[in-house]
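From the methods appendix. Each design record in this collection lists the tokenized structure first, followed by the designed amino acid sequence. Records were kept in a plain field format so they could be parsed without special tools. The example shown here is representative of the layout used throughout.

RECORD:
FOLD TOKENS (461 positions):
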């Protein structure tokens, strides 16, 4: 059903990290479409319409402002929006199940299914339904069954259009994507719906970057892309452990292998581990699907990527304890950064959470600083209140500290006055660079004992 003003009504269910930025980009590039983003969370919906957006993402405020009130709308009236919609993107959360069958691995589809049932209940016309959230392969089949089992004579065409944006660079990724993937049934109605979605992206994405496929390839590609990216990080992290034993330097190894054009330079930064809402969840999803089909060897292969990530975080803390004379009890340790990567306030699956908890278990006094993620850090560690300190200012945070651990690669952490920080720390002062971003030689000259990932330590004792 189209209105007289707008060519089509697009609705996005779920105003989170994926739905908000993606719809802001579609609205900005397609002014003839009305784009309404709905959510069950009224605070989120209200925040999207203020200068304090519910998520931090460079360039996002300007993008939202461009279309807000013109053809971009945020609303809690989910039924009203669905009723008017021609095209519905679904980007509700699909966390890993914490209960029952598949707990710890399979995706929890309750939010998706609830959404499908609401769509069914309130729809009065045919609609295109697009999976935007990452979903297990063949979820579209279940959705088709739920939606098309209606006695209203309505047809719902289910498509998969997985989102590949990375947080912190969401606006740039949406503006200039490597590719847009649109999967549909290869039936007449499936191909027609596919063309409608291609039309939206063709407003700003070059045709050769719009890839179409069958529904199952699109669903699977999202999981596989994230599994491959995470695998690169786990691979280089595994080598970082070997470098620390052999005096090789992981940065030099990464450069040497990354210049091979078949390997390429990206995603070879050894770190304290990968975080984020996707990598672990999507790999575990892949593992679960493989197990479901009896492909146990394939499941174990991908599971090892997650296990290596957990090992890397454990190794980081074990090393801290070992070099700080086998105890951190009562020692003030600053986590420089809490977000799972720079330029985001998101802390989901951030290695900082595991590191903070392990240090607290060792009775350390943990101090957390981050320019954008402190609110989320407080929520993540709410059960540790009283045992942990949150501090906006890295200089204040490090006063009388025994050690600093760099957890997030925020640019400005490279520009801090480390001589000033050193002066106010307990001695010997330690820096553990979990992101290999600091100038280690300079820090060593100042007086720090410097431990990084995959490099020989620089120590004064
Ligand atoms: C990822 C995918 O990149 C994106 O395509 C998908 O849509 C969602 O999942 P995101 O989780 O936002 O995006 O961030 P990404 O840049 O991939 O980083 C993930 C984690 O890996 C971060 O913790 C990051 O710090 C870490 N990382 C990344 C490394 O440790 N080393 C690297 O070389 C690259
Ligand atoms: P992602 O990173 O995939 O975007 P988020 O958790 O940031 O995930 O966003 C998902 C959003 O979906 C949340 O704001 C949540 O309130 C919303 N949501 C969950 N279930 C529903 C639902 N049934 N109807 C509308 N919105 C929903």
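DESIGN:
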């Amino acid at each position: 059903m189209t209105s007289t003003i707008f060519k089509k009504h697009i609705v996005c269910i779920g105003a989170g990290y994926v739905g908000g930025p993606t719809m802001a980009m579609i609205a900005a590039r397609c002014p003839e479409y009305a784009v309404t983003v709905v959510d069950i969370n009224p605070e989120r919906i209200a925040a999207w319409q203020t200068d304090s957006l519910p998520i931090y993402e460079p360039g996002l405020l300007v993008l939202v402002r461009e279309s807000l009130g013109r053809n971009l709308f945020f609303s809690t009236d989910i039924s009203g929006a669905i009723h008017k919609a021609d095209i519905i993107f679904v980007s509700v959360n699909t966390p890993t199940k914490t209960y029952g069958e598949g707990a710890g691995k399979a995706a929890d589809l309750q939010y998706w299914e609830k959404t499908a049932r609401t769509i069914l209940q309130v729809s009065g016309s045919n609609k295109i339904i697009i999976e935007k959230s990452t979903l297990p392969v063949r979820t579209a089949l279940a959705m088709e069954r739920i939606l098309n089992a209606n006695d209203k004579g309505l047809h719902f065409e289910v498509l998969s259009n997985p989102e590949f944006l990375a947080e912190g660079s969401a606006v740039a990724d949406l503006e200039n994507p490597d590719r847009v993937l649109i999967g549909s049934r290869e039936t007449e109605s499936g191909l027609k719906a596919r063309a409608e979605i291609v039309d939206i992206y063709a407003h700003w994405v070059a045709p050769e970057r719009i890839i179409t496929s069958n529904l199952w390839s699109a669903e699977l590609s999202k999981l596989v892309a994230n599994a491959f990216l995470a695998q690169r990080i786990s691979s280089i992290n595994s080598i970082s452990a070997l470098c620390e034993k052999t005096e090789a330097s992981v940065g030099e190894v990464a450069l040497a292998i990354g210049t091979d054009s078949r390997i390429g330079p990206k995603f070879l930064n050894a770190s304290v581990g990968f975080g984020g809402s996707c990598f672990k969840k999507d790999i575990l999803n892949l593992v679960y699907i493989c197990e479901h089909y009896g492909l146990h060897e394939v499941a174990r292969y991908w599971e090892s990527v997650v296990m290596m990530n957990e090992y890397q975080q454990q190794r980081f803390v074990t090393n801290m304890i070992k070099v700080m004379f086998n105890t951190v009890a009562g020692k003030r340790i600053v986590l420089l950064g809490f977000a799972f990567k720079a330029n985001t306030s998101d802390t989901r699956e951030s290695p900082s959470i595991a590191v903070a908890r392990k240090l607290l278990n060792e009775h350390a006094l943990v101090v957390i600083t981050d320019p954008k993620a402190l609110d989320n850090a407080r929520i993540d560690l709410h059960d540790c209140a009283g045992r942990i300190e949150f501090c906006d200012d890295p200089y204040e945070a490090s006063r009388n500290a025994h050690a600093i651990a760099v957890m997030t690669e925020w640019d400005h952490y490279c520009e801090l006055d480390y001589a000033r920080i050193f002066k106010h720390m307990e001695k010997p002062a330690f820096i553990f660079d979990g992101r290999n971003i600091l100038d280690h030689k300079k820090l060593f000259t100042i007086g720090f004992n410097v431990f990084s990932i995959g490099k020989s330590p620089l120590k004064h004792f």
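APPENDIX NOTE: Residues 215-246 form the longest helix (32 residues).
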